[in-house]
Amino acid sequence: MPSNLYDLTLHEAHELLAGRQVSSQELTQAILDRVEQVEPRIKAYVTVTEEIAMQQAREADEAIALGEKNPLAGVPMQLKDNMCTRGVHTTCSSRMLENFVPPYNATVVERLRAGLAVVVGKGNMDEFAMGSSTENSAFFPTHNPWDLERVPGGSSGGPAAAVAAGECIYAIGSDTGGSIRQPAALCGIVGMKPTYGLVSRYGLVAFASSLDQIGPLTKDVTDSALVLSAIAGHDPRDSTSIPQGAKDYTKALTGDIRGLKIGVPKEYYGEGIDPQVADTLRRALEKLEELGASVEETSLPHTRYALAVYYILAPSEASANLARYDGVRYGYSSQEDGSMWEAMERTKQHGFGPEVKRRIMLGTYALSAGYYDAYYLKAQKVRTLISREFQEAFQKYDVLITPTSPTVAFNLGAKVEDPVQMYLNDICTIPVNIAGIPAMSLPAGFVDGLPVGMQIMAKPLAEETMLRVAYAYEKATEWHKMRPEL
Amino acid sequence: MPETKKYETVIGLEVHAQLLTKSKMFCSCPADYIQGSPNSVVCPVCLAMPGVLPVINRRAVEYVIMTGLALNSTISQDTQFHRKNYPYPDLVKGYQISQYDVPIAVGGWLTIDVDGEQKKVGITRVHLEEDVAKLQHIHDAQGESYSLVDVNRAGIPLMETVSEPDMRSPEEARQYLENLRAILQYLGVSTGNMEDGSFRCDANISIRPVNSTELFTRTEIKNMNSFRAVYRALEYEVERQIKVVEEGGRVVQETRGWVEERGVTVSQRTKESAHDYRYFSEPDLPPLSISREWVKEVKAGLPELPGARRDRFVAEYGLSLYDASLLITSKSTADFFENGLRAKDTKPVEVTTKAKAIANWMLGDMTGLLNASGVELGNARITPQGLREFTDLIEAGTINGPAAKAVFEEMFKSGKGAMIIAEEQGLTQISDAGLLDEAVAEVLQRNPQAVQDFLGGKETAVKFLVGQVMKETRGRANPAMISKILLENLGTELNG
């Protein structure tokens, strides 16, 4: 066990709470103290709900005293600020929703609270989850705990940095093109994007509905399996949710990967990938081979089109999803003089940041009469090809392994002027969302003192296979135990 | 008008009907929104709050399947919802969840009567979408202008039925609309009420030279809030388009609004300023499969439809085709008729007589009274049972013709039973020979001239004398008996 309470994993914390060695109130207070200590440097939180957290901790302590065994009970965590929380601000790090207080909880929040999770606050993010560095937050950027001059990745940069810095035990993020996995990689933690439809999207503020998926950001693989077990499962309020009941994913954590077939798609190791990152991944693959898996190079030629497909489909869906912010019913509303139409236009003009506007325009264009066939329809067709290519690959391999991010964390401000450079951060993660398959990132080494993430992809609903590989690798390495000095 | 012979009118209709489901289209809010104060029948989903998701109302889909089957459409096996994007403050999500290239029902037809011939009007499609919120534009006494939004109506299931451009006159359009409404009412899927906006009609209309088969530039007419408005607007638009062409101009493709007070259509939006709806498949709703078993089940449960009911009224009750057609147009009228007829046991040989009597009173006096009072049949005080008792009393001779009208009016006004009214007002028929003898004697004594005329061979004098007896008895005398007694008396004088 680590010496600081804030360094505990979820399963370690649960053990201490269940053994009555520590109370939820003590643990929650330790986290709040840690937030106070490092938050001025990290800026991982948009909102800290101190009082609510302590109240929830008291309730958890009472329940634990009465025999509550839920692994989430009493453990403080953070929610990305695009998950609706009843009575607590949900901003999406946007001026548009700066004062928005939802009257309802997201399904994922209901499930966490049913397990008596303690919500410490809401995590900073790129505005409406659009970005790869958390620099698109309308409020402030988040800093990488491993190097405060660098970005934590994004869009779930707040949650990833908070977990890495001990500002929460674990966090819940959302991933549309890599927004859980890429920041997890850049902050040296574990991040999972489950199969599309495994976790209910009800109450997750929509960015691109056919790609968005909620998942855990945790300190290790066991925690990832624990949190997934709590939040996965069918929800009648989300029609895209897979009709499948809850599952205990920790059963997959056997540590045994003998005979498992690993495919290594070469497209993820070449052009555009930092050679040192690629080398780090090769060493990780050697380790997996040592553990009894077979490793074979393969090819996914359509991967190169995934980024283009993504930047047509995601903005198209976003252009519709963000049309509701007209300042009439909630959120920011321009109150200057003028007509109804002028007020609605000004609301969008002032309420949205530049990246959000860029994507709304991209999407509107791609769906327009005369361009629809060339862009949106074409992208849908290529999406099918990419999915098919993955299906074929998974007939041969149990998992595919790639780097999560082409580089380690880059400097704040380095890419803000060049959207395309920024978009290229997600070339390894985007194909996964396009195909709707599950993938996770876990620590696999360091380059220049900065964490490198290994991405494991599996076929739809094969989270257990993915977790099994991740757990075996984690058991054989020490990367996940590294903590940044703060 | 000589011009109308040169041109043929081409009309297609788009009808939006709110469906009578318990809950809204994509959330569990009650669909009965009209009772609620503004913005009270709402939830995060129909308010389009961030993060909410739609869930399809199965019953609404079933209602469209029912309608599709009644309109002889093909029910799609795989259907899908799309997002129709356009900005408007009454469209809370900024897009409407609607259907695009795969509607629930495709093709089909509905029949109308044209000069006694049955004509099929083609159905293009029937699809499902959601209604929008309601805007209220306020110009207050201080000169301030602002708009208010009531979200109660947002998310009410809306079924759109699109016809082929198969109608050739405003009259055909009116019939199509009436028949479609009757079908929806018979299915129980819509109230069909145009006045409160739960049944709305937009029309596409163009003219073309007679004998042409081409489609010419059309206009779309909106804002027609009654059957009469549809008819008037289309009549106006035909003449307007003819005038434009006759004067050497060209009809412009545009949306025009019907202005009821002025009786004209005015341009609202030209083609150039039309929205690009940027349809794309709704990612929050997976494609919807409609199993053949489901369709079979729905088909088996379909109620009797207007056409079948009309034919049955003719065959079973001996009504004329014309009367039957009038009765079935509205389900409540047909139900009233049939409930009246069945209110008492009727011998098979009497069915036609009884049916004819009930139908006559309904299509005559009752229709007149309903129209004059503006009361809906459903809210009328008179009941089917009451009407049946009434016609039975006439048949039995208890109430005679002239008195019947007064009794009926009172039944309509007060809802009291016919017998009670007749007794209260002394309107029962006098068939008592003793009483009638007295009245006849009195009349004969007072009208010696008429008696002389009759004796002199002028037979029409009897009519006059019968009238006098009726007058004497305030219309209550049994006319057949008066004639008999009169002739007996006169015969005695003749022979004596």
What does this structure look like?
The complex is a heterodimer of chains A (486) and B (496). With 486 residues, chain A is an alpha/beta fold. Chain A has a domain at 5-254: Amidase signature (AS) enzymes (Alpha-Beta Complex), CATH 3.90.1300.10. In chain A, 38% of the residues lie in helices and 13% in strands. Chain A contains 15 helices and 11 strands. Chain A has helices spanning 10-18, 24-42, 50-65, 107-114, 157-164, 181-187, 221-231, 275-290, 303-321, 340-351, 354-367, 373-396, 419-423, 430-435, 463-475; strands spanning 45-48, 76-80, 118-123, 170-175, 190-193, 213-218, 261-265, 294-298, 399-403, 439-447, 450-458. An 11-stranded mixed sheet of chain A has the order 1-3-2-4-6-5-10-11-9-7-8, sandwiched between helices. In chain A, 61% of the residues are buried. Chain B is of the alpha+beta class. Chain B folds into 3 domains: 7-297, no CATH class; 306-424, no CATH class; 433-495, Arc Repressor Mutant, subunit A, CATH 1.10.10. Chain B is built from 16 helices and 17 strands. In chain B, strands 1, 2, 6, 7, 8, 11, 12, 13, 14 and 15 form a 10-stranded mixed sheet that branches. In chain B, strands 5-4-16 form a 3-stranded antiparallel sheet, with no helix packed on it. Chain B has a two-stranded antiparallel sheet with strand order 3-17. In chain B, strand 13 (219-224), helix 4 and strand 14 form a beta-alpha-beta unit. In chain B, helix 14 runs antiparallel to helix 15. Chain B is elongated and about 100 Å long.
Main attributes of the structure:
heterodimer; A: 486 residues; alpha/beta; Amidase signature (AS) enzymes; eleven-stranded mixed beta sheet; 13% strand; globular; B: 496 residues; alpha+beta; Arc Repressor Mutant, subunit A; 3 domains; ten-stranded mixed beta sheet; three-stranded antiparallel beta sheet; elongated
Itemize the secondary structure elements and their pairings:
The complex is a heterodimer of chains A (486) and B (496).
Chain A: H1 10-18, H2 24-42, E1 45-48, H3 50-65, E2 76-80, H4 107-114, E3 118-123, H5 157-164, E4 170-175, H6 181-187, E5 190-193, E6 213-218, H7 221-231, E7 261-265, H8 275-290, E8 294-298, H9 303-321, H10 340-351, H11 354-367, H12 373-396, E9 399-403, H13 419-423, H14 430-435, E10 439-447, E11 450-458, H15 463-475
Parallel strand pairs in A: 2-3, 2-4, 7-8, 7-9
Antiparallel strand pairs in A: 1-3, 4-6, 5-6, 5-10, 9-11, 10-11
Chain B: H1 3-6, E1 7-18, H2 58-70, E2 74-75, E3 78-79, E4 82-85, E5 95-98, E6 105-106, E7 109-114, E8 117-130, E9 134-139, E10 145-150, E11 157-163, H3 170-187, E12 199-209, E13 219-224, H4 227-246, E14 254-259, E15 264-270, E16 280-281, E17 288-289, H5 292-300, H6 306-317, H7 321-328, H8 331-341, H9 351-373, H10 384-395, H11 401-414, H12 418-424, H13 433-446, H14 448-455, H15 461-472, H16 479-495
Parallel strand pairs in B: 13-14
Antiparallel strand pairs in B: 1-11, 1-12, 2-6, 3-17, 4-5, 4-16, 6-8, 7-8, 8-11, 9-10, 12-13, 14-15
